[in-house]
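dumping the sequnces here before i forget
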Amino acid sequence: MEMATTTDTDQVNSTWTKADQKAARKRSAALHRKEHAWAAAFMAPPVIGWVAFLLFPMAFSIYASLTNWNGIGNMTFIGFDNYTRLVQDPYFWKALWNTIFYMIGIPIGLAISLALALALSRKIRGRTFFRTVYYIPVISSLAAIAILWQWAYNGDFGLVNQVLALVGIDGPNWLQDPNWAKPALIIMAVWKGLGYSTLLYLAAVQAVPRSLYEAASLDGASGWKKFTKITWPMVQPVTFFLVVTNIIAGSMIFTEINIMTPTGGPSWSTASLVWYVWNQAFRNLQMGYATAMALVLGILVLIVTAIQFRINRANDFSID
Amino acid sequence: MRKFKAAAITATMVGALTLAACSSNGSSGDASEEPDTSGGTGANELTFMFRGGDYDKLAYQAAIDAFEEETGASVKMIITDADQYATKLQAAIAGNKVPDVFYIEPGKMMGYVYADVLADLTDYVEQDVIDNIWSFGTDAYRFNTETGERGNSADALYGLPKDVGPFGFGFNKALFDELGVEYPSLDEPMTFDEFVAKAKELTTDRDGDGEMDTFGTGLNVTWNSQAFVWGAGADWISEDQKTVTVDTPEFAEALQWFADLGLVEGVTPTATQAQSLDTYQRWMQGDLGFFPVAPWDIATYNAKHEENPDGFDYEVIPYPVANEGDDWSTWLGSLGIAVSENSQNKELAAQLATYLSTDLEAQKILAENKVQIPNLIDYATGEWIETDAPAAGWPANTEIFLQIAEEKGRPLPGVWTYTPEWYDNFWIGIENVVDNGSQTAADFVAGKQTEMQMLLDQSWISADQAKAQG
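..and the predicted 3d for all of it:
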């Protein structure tokens, strides 16, 4: 049967003249050109958008960071002076340190989210209610939440200290104390982000094949073993996604700081790098310098993210 | 290839989010909804960009109607949210879409002048018009581009005042009556000692639970310490705006005295108490004896008085001074109305700015609604103070506001320098002096002097650079 088919094809090919083949190639090329044109047309909007709204602004930012520019007048090229200044600027380092400090909230938030996801994946009463409750902060206005937490953190009558007082703890004056202002903001950020992380973890946990747990049970695995050997590896892609996006988002923390501690907090203990960038750019007319700081922040986040991608690839696995 | 793709995705993601961080201030907005701020292109077309409340809009609509009728011009009004105005204006300037007429903060004027954004209005505004505006109101928008000096009446005029905002002081007559404390003089300033003595009398435990319920005062250091520091003969900066002067003994003493109001005398709520119920709310509840009173507060304070006449009834007085016979002063704010250097109808735009600043009907609307005191001296010191102000419900001693506008008012430190960074730096760590007392004022100011001076020097260098590069 196969032989016959081959012979037929040969016969057909042999009946084609060179002219026929050339015409066919021409038709094919024309068809491809048309397809390519359509493909280009479909691809053009995002590519143009990428060039206009990302590549060009980034290139412009790089140039602006090498200039003395107040954001309204002309730019003067000054080489790497802004970067030299940045290295010597104690407030840049302080703001960078504060920003890094805020990242402590990421592992804490992920651990709580995973625990909540595991709890909510079980058949407990009020499961839907809890899922909704945990998700409400995610869709709430950050500005409104910041104001509410500002009240909650009040040293005397704030909800947080009242709850602590119930268990005999004399809470600090959170937002007025340089040692507690950052942790206060971290707690709020963790609370705000819980719903989103929990939702993703919940989907990941529910996607783990039951058969793996059944097999582990038959082998006598403990609950902890099941968690460390099955659940944790299986939700790793979600963990990776959350860590990457949380670090990027965490590096941009601004709104809550600007509302809850508008002058950078006691002894400048809450000023984040983006808050400092904003102040330099729009209050102190140092747009060139602010751009240099923003770029350094972007590069740092890029490096951290690249490292995370690398680590994630090394730990990658698949189930056959 | 895979590595390249991963790197590209990472870079794109980081870049996009970083840019998003810089572009967003927690609010969303559709670019397509942004109004076109460009100046008018037709012979009689003007664009006016400003911020403010309903009364500003009402007043300016009246002024603009009159202006359009008189000149045949067509004015497009663009109103923005107050908190977004500065960034929107900066974006409009960077995008070369500068409105013909717009509000400007005096603190940002130097940069705008050097960048050729603001038109010199000197030749467009007649001298008799200028003479009838509070001199601070025009001097705040004068600038010598050669020397960098501000506030000299002989220099070029780059704006007219939308308003002048006297930051006055006041007391709650109802609390004084309740506690049997004698009113302070309405004309003469108290000395610091007299002020503390009265504040102590006003600090009481009403319900006997051991906690103080009323306090002499409760003043935010960032906005209220200026008048006391000036009242002690000290200042943040030298007259030529080149030297930081916070390390003088009189400055340290004044700041320590201010801190001791709470730390030693106990006549203010503590930082923690103020956080639970801030001092503004305590004042409104009738629990503070002394508190700032400014024109923009009047409508709210009047409403509070109507609601609670026995607990809240205020009057305006001079700020205290260190010693008897010292001159008192306080800060005077302003917002300006400027004209674009590139306006195609510059003369008409200057005429509109003059209208907005000095139109009598507009001024009457703004003053009647307690938005501001009038800019016009003849009206403010005549018909307004005699009949219109009392009829509209301004306090009996409103004369104090006029005194501040005329002679007692000063700009906030930092407003007349190229950038206010040096002045902002002063407040970093101030809680150690005023809230917890872990640092003395003398140590604090000694530590601040060098850093603030360095930032002030940098401000002048930046000004020179802006001047050179345009």
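DSSP finds 15 helices and two strands in chain A.
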